[in-house]
Amino acid sequence: xxxxxxxxxxxxxxxxxxxxxxxxxxxxxxxxxxxxxxxxxxxxxxxxxxxxxxxxxxxxxxxxxxxxxxxxxxxxxxxxxxxxxxxxxxxxxxxxxxxxxxxxxxxxxxxxxxxxxxxx
Length: 120
Fold this sequence. Notes:
- By secondary structure, the protein is an all-alpha fold.
- It has two domains: about 1-55; about 60-120, no CATH class.
- Helices cover about 75% and strands about 0% of the residues.
- The chain is built from five helices and no strands.
- It has helices spanning about 5-15, 20-55, 60-75, 80-95, 100-110.
- Helix 1 runs antiparallel to helix 2 (about 20-55) and helix 3 runs antiparallel to helix 4.
- About 10% of the residues are buried.
- The mean pLDDT is about 85.
């Protein structure tokens, strides 16, 4: 559903249709708005982490990235069991978070993509 389409439908309803239909479309618009807000929150967090790591390597931020990725992978535990185990072990040992190269190499070996690229 595109926002332009919903907005046009809402404009067309004014004075022609029951207010309940208009408010139904308004709820759809709020859904689109909230989806955009959620996407912006994720993007902002990613930018904050990447910019902090670009300035100076922070093991704490790298550890937070490991934790966040475990939470994402937990949505499909059966498929990503090995990856979750490897990330938890890395978090516990706190070795791969100490340098950029070790962290990126570990992440790419474990998950198959660069940690600072957007991946969905």
